[in-house]
Amino acid sequence: MSKFLAGIASFGLVVSPVAAQAQADATVTNTLNIPENATLLGKSDPNVRRATALVNGAVITGTDVDQRTALLVAASDGEIPEAELQRVREQVLRNLIDETLKIQEAAAQEIVVEREEINRRYAQVAAQNFGSDTPKMDAYLSSIGSSAASLKRQIEGEMAWERLQRRQIAPFVNVSEEEVRELLERMEESRGTEEFRIGEIFLAATPATRDAVLENARRIVQQLQQGGSFVAYARQFSDASTAVVGGDLGFVRLETLPAEMQTVARGMQVGQLVGPFEIPGGFEIMYLIDKRQILMADPRDAVLSLKQISISFEPGVTEAVAAGRIDEFGQVVQSMRGCGDVDNVAATVNATVVANDAIKVRDLPDRLQPSLLELQVGQSTPPFGSIEDGVSVLMMCGRDDAAAGSTPDFEEMMGQMEGDRIAKRAQRYLRDLRNDAYIEYN
Fold first, then answer.
1. Residue 7 DSSP code
2. What does the pLDDT read at residue 159?
3. So what's the architecture of 299-400 in CATH?
4. Where does the signal peptide begin and end (predicted)?
5. Alpha helices (H) along 109-257
6. Helix axis angle, 148-164 relative to 115-130, nearest 10°?
7. How far apart are CA 220 and CA 211, in angstroms?
8. Which of 98, 117, 267, 354 is most buried, taking the most CB atoms under 10 A from its CB?
9. What SS3 state is found at 225?
10. Greater pLDDT, 265 or 401
């Protein structure tokens, strides 16, 4: 269910991430007159934690924090150590404060998110993850220590913020035709240039907090390496504007990134996690989601027609017996004369056959993609799998290569540029709400 939990964080507000905004957020300018040897005059006990808050009179309870924290813990497959939970809870509380501010501002602007709308969106999430079985999702949320009410509150916050942006920001964002034409021309001039789709978690640091922030960043990387959801961690911990979209910078050219990020990204492979490393203003954790060449065909967009031929093993089978069957299976597969021969030959070794006539190479596991890209029609991959899960091969029955990329049309590009500017203004809007809020901690 960790994929479900990583996904629910981004079902509402969708904005275009902006690399330049992330860089701006990562630049700390010290305009305050604070001495380097500042001494705290009051008591500071790190063992005393405030778990709840009043936000302009609205209560955020300990239960609210617990239930939202449970979503993040489950997204990490329950791997967050006890020592880390307090830090997670503090971040969750900050997120709940922001969520409350968004809902309050929507109400102040007479924007109403009806309960029926929230329930419909909740049902959509259930349909995507539990086959439209809403009670099953209710039970799952309860089983991990969360609740349907907590998730519905998050849905309400996302929907309220989305509508606020449409009313208070979008009408005042203008992109000129000349700007769009200039960008399209630059894209055409950059045809063939490599772009990188990068996920980032940026942790802001000052000289005084550097060591503590670095240690936190290392702990986050450790959790990610153990299977934690990058999207969930980015939303909860990143200080960059891309946190709202799970840290996704989108496809960017390296020259638009800080020099430190350029250097690291240039040597990364798709699926690789790197960090933490220092950039101006803090520390960066990067995940290379994908890369492509601007306006060029990507081989991984080829649509394949495949047949998967699989054998399984009885529980308790010895390795020697399994190895013999795998060898026999490999010889049988090699003897097949194309996809028309698969069903009959597979039956001789009690193998099952599953066909898929429209699957993109990029939708298959990363480790299989290189082998598939090298196959001709009628050829198969080497066997893959395990004794526990079964052993399979994929035979290629057809391939439709991707067409060369085309320049986005004028309206599409204008919409993307408007989305970028709306996202920037939304961040400033939220900062203003925080600055004007009355917040009491209990």
1. H
2. 92
3. Roll (3.10)
4. 1-22
5. 115-130, 134-143, 148-164, 177-189, 210-225, 230-237
6. 120
7. 14
8. 98
9. helix
10. 265
Reduced to 3 states (helix: H, G, I; strand: E, B; else coil), residue 351 is coil
Sheet holding 384-386, edge to edge: 352-360, 303-311, 390-400, 384-386
Is the domain defined by 2-28+50-295+412-435 classed in CATH 3.10.50.40?
yes
Q: Are 6 and 75 in contact (CB under 8 A)?
A: yes
pLDDT score, position 304: 86
Q: Write out the H or E segment, with its range, that includes residue 280.
A: none
Could you tell me the strand order of the sheet in which 439-441 lies? Answer: 58-60, 53-55, 439-441
Which residues, 6 or more positions from 385, have their beta carbon under 8 angstroms from its beta carbon? Answer: 310, 391, 392
Give the model confidence (pLDDT) of 16-54 as tens digits: 333 333 333 333 334 555 555 555 555 545 444 445 888
In the chain, the N- to C-terminal Cα span, in Å, equals 33
Helix, strand, or coil here: 54?
A: strand
C-alpha–C-alpha distance, residues 247 and 441, integer Å? 29
Q: What are the boundaries of each domain within the chain?
A: 2-28+50-295+412-435, 299-400
Q: Which of 377, 379, 368 is nearest to 401 (CA)?
A: 377
Give the SS3 label for residue 182. Answer: helix
Summarize pLDDT for 340-361 with one digit per residue, the tens: 888 888 888 888 888 888 888 8
Collapsing DSSP to helix, strand or coil, 216 comes out as helix
The chain-wide mean pLDDT, for the chain, equals: 80
Tell me what pLDDT residue 285 has: 94
The DSSP 8-state label assigned to residue 121 in this structure reads H
For residue 333, the 8-state DSSP code is: H
Pull the structure tokens for residue 117.
Answer: 């709308």
What are 341-349's contacts with CB under 8 Å, separation 24+?
A: 342/307, 342/309, 342/395, 346/309, 349/311
Question: Does the CA dihedral 196-197-199-200 come out positive or negative?
Answer: positive
- Partners of residue 334 on adjacent β-strands: none
Same fold, 2-28+50-295+412-435 and 299-400: yes
35: CB partners within 8 A, 6+ apart: none
Contact in structure between 252 and 261 (CB atoms under 8 Å): no
Question: Strands, DSSP E only, in 230-269?
Answer: 248-252
Cis peptide before 276 (omega within 30 of 0): yes
Type of residue found at 310? S
Q: For residues 170-174, give the mean pLDDT.
A: 88
Mean pLDDT of 188-207: 84
